[in-house]
Amino acid sequence: MSLGAHDIEAIERATVAAVAPEACEELDGWLLPFDRGTVKRARSAVPLHRGEVEPATLDRIEDRCDSRQVAPALRLADAPCFDTLRAELARRHYVDDNPTCVQTGSARRMRDLVAADVRVADVDASPDPAWAALFLGEGFDPVDGVHRVRSLARATGSLFASVRENGSTVAAGAMAFGHGWASVHGMRTEQSQRGRGLAGRVLAGLAQAALARGFERVFLQVDAQNQPALALYRRAGFETRWQYRYWQRQQWPG
């Protein structure tokens, strides 16, 4: 499946909507989300197009961030069309981190990740306390977990998947819907329960919910260094379409 300019814009809009920033503006073909939390997608400006970016646009983005008293940050695809912009960002003392893959797949292929006789994750219209508690467990940053739960729970129309055992949630994820796509977010498995195929049951439950709502196309973002997650998504039929990095202006004393 090839992606056109309309698909790229739809995915970027859906990505921001799924993490429900506190505020969002549009400027010169960019989305400018603003949020006080730790979720970078909720507070990084992102272009809706693949084309040259004028330095004046970067000036205006920085001005909007300065007016809100937040550090300017961008989420930028590793695409040749942004080479000039990346050079300008480096000149302005921005640094990049967190290379992340944007992957697409199909809900039907996701559902086939587990056998038909395997119970998939339960899917609910809102996150319960056990779902949220998983983000605060061993192996996860509790501060980031609080912000991530808050951000995902704010999104309109999202669903929340849980694999429950003995009164607790041992694996979880979320799915958002918008702009013609379903999208997977917040995948978590309790540290002591990894390797049991629980994340596959979460994906299958979310896929079942997507199909019931008439959504076949699915996208997700995954850390480019997270080999276990990349392997799982590959088995679920996902393919990388592009990679992005976060660029943030270094703060200088004085």
UniProtKB/TrEMBL annotation:
GO terms for molecular function: acyltransferase activity, transferring groups other than amino-acyl groups. Gene3D superfamilies: 3.40.630.30. InterPro entries: Acyl_CoA_acyltransferase, GNAT_dom, Rv0428c-like_C. This is GNAT family N-acetyltransferase. Residues 108-254 form the N-acetyltransferase domain. It holds the Pfam family Rv0428c_C. PROSITE patterns: GNAT. It comes from Acidovorax cavernicola.
